[in-house]
Amino acid sequence: MKVHYLGTAAAEGWPALFCSCENCKRARKAKGKNYRSRPQALIDGNLMVDFGPDTFYHMMKYDLDFSEIQHVILTHSHTDHFYATDLILRAFPYAYFGDQRKMTVYGNEKCHWMFLRTLEVEDDSANMRDCVGFEEIHAFGSFQIPGYEITPLRAVHDPKEECVIYLIKDRLGKKLLFANDTGIFPEDTWEALEGVKLDCVSLDCTLGNDPVMDCGHMGLRAVRSVVDRLGKMGCISQSTPVVLTHFSHNGNLLHEELEAETKEDGFIIAYDGMLLEF
């Protein structure tokens, strides 16, 4: 399985759009891996995780052909993860042949509402309904798409909607836990992971070195707690790749600082454009 991290920031990006805090100033000076766009990932080149406002930028930056993407899984409805208006661009006259390669978006009830609102209020294309479909999903309800079994698991994030993280299994049996935008997992998610051998874990680390343990996101303290429990459950071993992503300027640590801070943990610090194969 290959995971391409297209964007690795939290909602505001880093440096944040209108921010002049010290952490954004440092990122602007350092550049490189410290320039982070809004969150999105591509699995094996054909399964997209989240569809945020930087999708067009990611397509250009990494020379990707998103006309081939037929499946998008959403974690929740916040606009850094689901920018529904851009789905119109899949249809005529903004794109050609979208009806021949229909894309299906999978998400919760709130995401479904946003999709329907786009159709009702903003869609000025000729055939969006033929080019993009929506399937509503719920936590712990596994579903199949070509090449994958996907299980949404309950996240701790926005109590106003059913936010999810994903357990993704490919045709070879490789298992990825992709956990953006969540605090320490709720107990029903831990129960669902019991007995699951993971080949890779990707975790939210929005809070960086902030001492807050859990507020709908994780920082290093919470990440270490989650990794420790996964190890004790037998879900991961010391050789299992653990990737940290979804960073905010409020977490304080630039890329190199995150690497130094987690050297003994052995964590992989994601950056925009990073390709991981396992």
From TrEMBL:
Matches recorded under InterPro entries: Metallo-B-lactamas (IPR001279), RibonucZ/Hydroxyglut_hydro (IPR036866)
Superkingdom assignment: Bacteria
Start and end residues of each Metallo-beta-lactamase domain: 47-246
Pfam families xref list: Lactamase_B_2 (PF12706)
Name by which UniProt lists this protein: MBL fold metallo-hydrolase
Protein's organism: Parablautia muri
